[in-house]
Amino acid sequence: MTYFVRVFCLVTLIATLSACSGVNVSEPYLPNDRWDQREKRQSVFGGEGLTFGDSKAERQDQGGTGIGVNGYLWRATLDTISFMPLASADPFGGVVLTDWHTPSTSPNERFKLNVYILGQALRADGIRVAAFRQVRNNVNEWQAIDMDPKAVTDIENAILTRARQLRTESMTQ
Hints:
Elements: H1 2-19, H2 56-61, H3 71-80, E1 86-90, E2 95-98, E3 109-117, E4 127-136, E5 142-145, H4 149-172
Antiparallel strand pairs: 1-2, 2-3, 3-4, 4-5
């Protein structure tokens, strides 16, 4: 009985596929009165693709990559903190959260970063970093310790420097 069911399904599948052989899927269907517009359509989202209210020229000037924040700052952030495990990364909101990272040189100390990209412009005030540090105490518990503000500024400057490098590289290509 199952042999006949399989044969029937196979024959039905072959008949269905052969019926589709005359369909031209490379040409989109447009009614006759709109056939001349077929050449203008390049994608589902139109000629410039999916945008969020800004033009293609503005996205290129700002390092735009279709994300909600400056593309150079975004990539520079990911490059700069790539040694730390990522907990979350939101390219539209501009938030990168790392998980705790313990350096191999100091196993009783760990760090965590929250990086906020604040806009579309590549500016020094376009990024903010919140850094957290914990050390292990005598009873083997993690205890929060204040971070040196200079260390936070150094991380922000490293991200900004990398973003400028990326922008310079993209202009020379």
